[in-house]
């Protein structure tokens, strides 16, 4: 039953017709519990509150399916304005982005050009930018672009997904560029040809990648809501005397709020991933696929309108 609902919501997350429908009719379906509003201005008070509660933030201007050059340049412009507003507002926030929103499906040169403009602005304000990882067909090119730009811009991070068989080798290949990595299980629908389908193997591989990256001495963002992964990381750091400045926990906005606060009280760095923007639909559907319990508040959202 769980697998059926997961596949169903992942299918919906890619449905362009429903995406347009959701935007046109503006129905939020409970999305406001996990999305920080339709513009960055809406997100600012949320970031201020999170910072006030001791939480760091990374904001993501939601956007997928960009297939025209002009739109990709608009996305880059929005990202640059966001960085400027973070700096001028004294907000403790980084930025996350997806390469497809900057034109990955159009041309590599276009992405490099857009991303370089963003990174130049981020560097001025000492703000880190993390490239989210999308589906496996884009993984190789995303990591190539990461390596290329990381040499020039140290304030660049990316993501490695433990459900992919290739990830262990990817970590080895990235080892010499002092990567800033967010380690996750992976959120897309992938074929057994490229990804573990058994949950235990995905979980075990995430633990393996966390250990490897930390023992290699690299900064590691452990992005999971799973108690077992969080406890594993704490115990590992204790056992190997890994300083708390070398890692952080990351969780999505609206998920496990109490756990986020408890970790801050214990003295760990916790970063909340706060998406905002009109294109909330694909993000929202992937969250529903991950955790059917999220459906409960989505349904409440529909009926409270
Ligand atoms: C900050 C951040 C950034 C991410 N970036 C990417 C990315 O770039 N690319 C990508 O593919 N994926 C990304 N993801 C998504 C990630 O890949 C997983 O799909 C997602 O985090 C679900 O896996 P999990 O480890 O949180 O826990 P799951 O494996 O979903 O759940 C394990 C257990 O954790 C507990 N749990 C999980 N969620 C909740 C909850 N909401 N409330 C209560 N208990 C819960 C439950 O006990 C559950 O059984 C990101 C996730 C985070 C947190």
What is the element layout, followed by pairings?
Elements: H1 2-13, H2 16-25, H3 40-52, E1 56-61, H4 69-88, E2 93-97, H5 108-124, E3 129-131, H6 139-152, E4 156-161, H7 167-174, E5 180-184, H8 199-215, E6 220-223, H9 227-239, E7 247-252, H10 257-265, E8 270-276, H11 281-290, H12 294-303
Parallel strand pairs: 1-2, 1-8, 2-3, 3-4, 4-5, 5-6, 6-7, 7-8
Helix pairs in contact: 1-11, 4-5, 8-9
The protein binds flavin-adenine dinucleotide (FAD).
Flavin-adenine dinucleotide binds next to strand 4, strand 5 and strand 7.
Number of domains: 1
Main CATH class: Alpha Beta
**Total count of helical runs of at least 4 residues:** 12
How many strands, which pairing sense, and closed or not: the largest β-sheet? 8 strands, parallel, barrel
pLDDT averaged over residues: 89
Instruction: Name the bound molecules.
Output: flavin-adenine dinucleotide
Based on DSSP secondary structure assignment, what is the total number of beta strands? 8
Order of helices and strands: HHHEHEHEHEHEHEHEHEHH
| Rg calc | 18 Å
Provide the β-strand percentage band. Answer: 5-15%
Shape: globular
* Strand order, sheet with most strands: 1-2-3-4-5-6-7-8
Determine the structural class based on helices, strands and strand pairing. alpha/beta
Q: Give the second-level CATH assignment, the architecture.
A: Alpha-Beta Barrel
Q: Which regions are unreliable across 5 or more consecutive residues at pLDDT < 50? A: 301-305
Helix content: 40-55%
Cofactor: FAD
Pfam families: Pro_dh (PF01619)
Keywords: FAD, Flavoprotein, Nucleotide-binding, Oxidoreductase, Proline metabolism
Protein name: proline dehydrogenase
């Amino acid at each position: 039953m769980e697998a059926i609902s997961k596949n169903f919501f992942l299918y919906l997350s890619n449905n362009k017709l429903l995406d347009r429908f959701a935007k046109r009719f503006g129905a939020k379906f409970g999305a406001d519990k996990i999305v920080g509003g339709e513009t960055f201005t809406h997100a600012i008070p949320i970031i201020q509150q999170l910072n006030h509660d001791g939480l760091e933030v990374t904001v993501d201007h939601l956007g997928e399916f960009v297939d025209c050059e002009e739109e990709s340049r608009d996305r880059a412009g929005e990202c640059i304005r966001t960085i400027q507003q973070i700096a001028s507002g004294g907000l403790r926030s980084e930025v996350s982005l997806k390469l497809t929103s900057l034109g990955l499906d159009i041309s590599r040169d276009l992405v490099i050009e857009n991303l370089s403009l963003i990174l130049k602005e981020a560097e001025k304000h000492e703000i880190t930018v993390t490239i989210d990882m999308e589906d496996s067909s884009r993984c190789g090119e995303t990591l190539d672009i990461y390596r290329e730009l990381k040499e020039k811009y140290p304030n660049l991070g990316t993501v490695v997904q433990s459900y992919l068989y290739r990830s262990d080798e990817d970590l080895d290949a990235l080892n010499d560029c002092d990567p800033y990595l967010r380690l996750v299980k992976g959120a897309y629908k992938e074929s057994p040809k490229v990804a573990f389908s058994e949950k235990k193997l995905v979980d075990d591989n995430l633990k393996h990648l966390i250990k490897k990256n930390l023992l290699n001495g690299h900064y590691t963002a452990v992005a999971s809501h799973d108690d077992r992964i969080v406890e594993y990381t704490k115990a590992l750091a204790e056992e190997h005397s890994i300083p708390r400045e070398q890692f952080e926990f990351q969780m999505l906005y609206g998920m496990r709020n109490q756990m986020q606060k408890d970790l801050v009280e214990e003295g760990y760095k916790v970063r909340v991933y706060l998406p905002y923007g009109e294109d909330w639909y694909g993000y929202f559907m992937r969250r529903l696929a991950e955790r059917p319990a999220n459906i409960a508040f989505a349904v409440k959202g529909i009926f409270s309108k």
